[in-house]
Amino acid sequence: MSVQTTYDAAPNAGIAGQIADDGPHDIGSYSVDTDAITAGLIVLKGASDGQARPILVTDEITADTDAIMTAQATSTSAQSCTGATLDGVVGAGVFWPPRNVTLTANNHANWDLSTITVEGLGPDGEPVSESFAMPDGGNVTLTGVVAFTQITTVKIPIQAGTSGTLDVGLGVAMGQYDRYVVGLALYNAAREPGTYAANKMVPVLKKGRAWVSTEGSVNNGDPVYVRIVATGNEVRGSVRATPDSTDCALLRRAKFVSTRSGAGLAMIELGGPV
């Protein structure tokens, strides 16, 4: 039988998903939805109450120029496009993660210099709107900065004729991510290597401090971004201190509470519901 004869003089302070201190913690127990959950990653609400699920490839953002509305013709009357007029594959439905919108106008003299307004709901279900400056003649793609989770109305002012067309779609930029986040899946030494299969129970940290495996350097007090879009060795649900272009979304109710150089073990604090 082999016997351990050497010991690391500086062992890791913990394991990703492990509680980090003896302070107050709010921990919930959830049933794993249809996909397995790995400890140390951010998890989302499942299909039913009391369920949790990992962030999946289907949560990645795919830009779609007409996801909300397809080739809406201009008019010599002001238009307020709602309901069935929002005829894209997403249309007036709710989508997640929060995303920016894009407006694509054809090249036609019927487009006049004007302001188009998009209205809907934001990351927390709050009313939001954004205005877009349409140039004379159209022939432009306008990219928004406001994060929506539903588009309810697209307002197009009076134009010179009926031959201009407008597509309204989804961009790649993400808004704040808290609304459907349950918390951080906790590590359980009895469940090596720290995975929870479908229909099993997973402990989830909703408030308190735990260890995570960060993708890069972090400083005490840094914001926490959750990975949604993953390529190569990247893992959905992992965390970092920067958005990595448009691949990660801000988790408002979290911050890093330790400092480290490079990727590796760091401490995160979840602050409870927003």
What does the model show?
It is a single chain. The protein is mostly beta strands and 274 residues long. The chain folds into 2 domains: 26-58 and 201-271, no CATH class; 61-174, Jelly Rolls. The protein contains no helices and 19 strands. The strands form 3 sheets. Strands 5, 6, 7, 8, 9, 10, 11 and 12 form an 8-stranded antiparallel beta sheet that branches. The model has no long low-confidence stretch (mean pLDDT 93).
Number of strands: 19
Structural class: mainly beta
Estimate the helix proportion, in percent.
under 10%
Report strand %.
over 45%
What do the pLDDT scores average to? 93
Task: Write the H/E string, N to C.
Answer: EEEEEEEEEEEEEEEEEEE
- What is the 3D shape? elongated
The helix tally amounts to 0
Terminal CA distance: 53 Å
CATH topology of the largest domain: Jelly Rolls
Radius of gyration computed on alpha carbons: 23 Å
**Total of domains:** 2
So, CATH architecture of the largest domain?
Answer: Sandwich
Poorly predicted spans: none
Output the CATH class name of the largest domain. Mainly Beta
Keywords:
274 residues, mainly beta, 8-stranded antiparallel β-sheet, 0% helix
Write the layout of secondary structure elements.
Elements: E1 26-32, E2 37-38, E3 42-45, E4 51-54, E5 64-73, E6 79-81, E7 94-107, E8 114-121, E9 127-134, E10 138-143, E11 148-156, E12 165-174, E13 181-185, E14 195-196, E15 201-214, E16 223-227, E17 239-240, E18 248-256, E19 264-271
Parallel strand pairs: 1-4
Antiparallel strand pairs: 1-15, 2-14, 3-4, 3-13, 5-12, 6-11, 7-10, 7-11, 7-12, 8-9, 8-11, 13-15, 15-19, 16-17, 16-18, 18-19
